[in-house]
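Design job #97: recover the sequence.
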């Protein structure tokens, strides 16, 4: 989550579907983004975004992300992450 990119957003006008697209592209959780935004200070704060980021990542994405047709990519990513974290190499 590059600081320059996060600061370039107009957080007061950023729609939740656009934010969901960024979360998906960055591969981060709502909690991670919330922590990052708090660390960057008031220019990145917006009540609507802050409230939305209290949702679990999967819930937020299911409500706001325009996922592509086909198999559910949210579930697939969650399954891959679970497999990766269970790997003995980690």
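Job complete. Output follows.
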């Amino acid at each position: 989550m590059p600081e320059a990119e996060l600061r370039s957003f107009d957080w007061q006008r950023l729609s939740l579907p656009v934010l969901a697209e960024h979360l998906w592209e960055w591969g981060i959780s709502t909690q991670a983004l919330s922590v990052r935004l708090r660390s960057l200070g008031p220019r990145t704060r917006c009540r609507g975004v802050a409230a939305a980021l209290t949702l679990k990542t999967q819930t937020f994405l299911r409500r706001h992300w325009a996922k592509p047709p086909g198999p559910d990519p949210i579930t697939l990513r969650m399954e891959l992450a679970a497999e990766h974290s269970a790997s003995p190499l980690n």
